[in-house]
């Protein structure tokens, strides 16, 4: 059921609890931002705002470089921002969302929520035993009953997972740890659009009781790269050095080989 609230009057109470590691948003569209946008940087996480502190991330011992830095977010943290601040310009019709997380075992919550100026949630990634990709365009499509659901995937088993979600035309694809790749129809309108005049919320939905608990590491937005190339830009640099892996060029093989290299590297 669609939730509609006035975002300007509603103060989000609780968001992430745990470590924030990586959430990346990429674009295939030339109308999106020309330079990568680090969302955590845009939200000033590195200055450790109230309720946020730096901790060791996924890899505590990485050969030839410093350990990963993550962010632990407490209940008192209130993390939201105008969407235009995070996604300047027109939000792309085709895009990707990527993240590395270790949610609390058995939990179910939204990692990312994007609202329009009327408080209607247009985009959301719910992590749980059966992840849900929430998408609602300017015409209200697809309906809530048609949101893509990935029943055979469990992201809340207490383990680390690297996840890529790709939206292209009328299909959404999820790739998890290079081992699972599933596609679902996305019954949106032709010329579907996401409005950036509202707010973006991390770790919950407005009016929801549930908050993200666990270990989520970089949030970036990027234009002009395929899902595979973007994934490698975000996650593959250190592992490629350690494993002497050359970045392939093809879409499917690049993302899967990139994930595999990350998994076999131990970090």
From TrEMBL:
Keywords: Repeat, Signal. Residues 239-267 are annotated as: Disordered. The keyword Aminoacyl-tRNA synthetase does not apply. The keyword NADP does not apply. Residues 245-267 have a biased composition (Polar residues). Residues 36-223 form the Thrombospondin-like N-terminal domain. InterPro entries: ConA-like_dom_sf, Laminin_G, TSPN-like_N. This is Collagen alpha-1(XI) chain-like.
